[in-house]
Amino acid sequence: MGRKQVVDKIFKNFFLVVSTFSVIALIAIIVFVFAQGAVPFLTSTADNVHLIPFGIEEFTINGTPYKLDDLPRTEKFVELDEPSGAYTVGFVNKGETVAIDLDLDLENDIVRDRVKIRTGDGGEVEYAEEYVFEVTYKGTIAGQLLGFYIAIPQTPTNFFSEFFFAKDWRPTYNKQYGILTMIVATILSTLGAVIIGVPLGLLTAVYMADFVPSGIGRYVRGGIDLLAGIPSVVYGFFGLMMVVPLIKEMSGASSGGGLLAAIFILAIMMLPTVISISETTLRSVPMAYREGSLALGATKMQTAWRVVFPAAKSGILASIILGTSRAVGETMAVIMVAGNSPQMPGKLTDGIRTLTATIALEMGYAQGRHNRILFSVGIVLFLMILILNTLILVLKKRLTEEQ
After folding, report:
1. Which of 72, 128, 133, 228 could form a disulfide with 272 if both were Cys (CB 3.0 to 4.6 A apart)?
2. How much is the CA Rg of the chain, to the nearest whole Å?
3. Please, which residues have CB within 8 angstroms of residue 103's CB and are 6 or more apart in sequence?
4. With contact defined as beta carbons under 8 Å apart, do 372 and 36 qualify?
């Protein structure tokens, strides 16, 4: 075996290994996201109510003594055997015995009524995340807090009635995870951007491919490539400082941030992708097509639209797919101009929140089921893009067959 054959074999095996690991990594990511996102609809958050002490070394539950160091798990919690019922939790604070009466009623779906905490004088009751209630007392040291977290398990969320088709999104208080408003907002903002951006992008691409003077064309193409490389946060800042105030002034709305601002920014952001790919495809059409059309007496405009454009349908559809996918998946710019209100938009100036904005805004503080639900939102977004791309590819196949 010669030297060249050895080198070729080494690179072949190297590319095979890299490709294999890439595919495995992609599959692992998809499996992980789907596994995390499916959990809220299949299992409860826990089997029983958890009582989690903090700052307290010894305490009693209905007279049974417990020590923090004796708790077997790293979480240091006590499972309460009865899912609903009355408990008395006691501990010593400032030399006095404090008794906390807990009345747990898991049949009630209203959060504020699920746990009724009655404390003695000096007790402070606060609400925390994930059906966790916090009872705190001031300790003997300045700034020290003693108390318990009461964590109540959530039953599995119904995918259709409580998630996909539900309108209310209140994950940290009412534990409501309805994303219908965000699905509608994502579809409307993307559809509006496509209606504006795709025609403008295609007209620009045709002009650059067949009509722009050669001396100017390279500068225009450089500008388009520069627009494609601008970070989305810059587009968002432009929209926040220029577009939002303009919409507010023209519409008289209380805030210019909303659906219309999101549509405008997304349309601008998808233009470079649509223009660049479409123009490259149009320029790749053989010159013989143009020459034959012109020889038959067609004008340059007729040639561009009736000969060159149909011949480049495949690449043009690819540009639309990529541009639309960017509009669906855009996050930062939308966060800055859309108003971030999870409501069903009634008019163009209403504030909206898209699926991507919800994930970005809440992933930093989401806990427990709330965190898993955000993975579920990501799955819905993934499926929306998959369905959209599939529909466009089917259309592309039909148009190809008709040629």
Report:
1. 228
2. 30
3. 86, 115, 116, 118
4. yes
pLDDT digits (tens, 9 = 90+) for 76-110: 888 887 656 778 888 888 888 888 877 766 555 44
Amino acid at 342: P
Nearest to 33 by CA among 362, 359, 392, 401: 359
Residue 162 and residue 149 in contact, taking contact as beta carbons nearer than 8 Å: no
The CATH code for residues 176-402 is: 1.10.3720.10
Taking the model in full, what pTM does it have?
0.84
Asked if 64 and 87 count as a contact pair (C-beta separation under 8 A), the reply is no
Quick check: 352 and 337 in contact, CB under 8 A? no
Give 82-133 as a DSSP string: SSSEEEEEEEEETTEEEEEEEEE-TT---HHHHEEEE--TT-EEEE-STTEE
Give the tens place of pLDDT for each residue, 69-85: 888 767 688 888 765 67
In the block, which residue shows the tokens 């855009």?
330
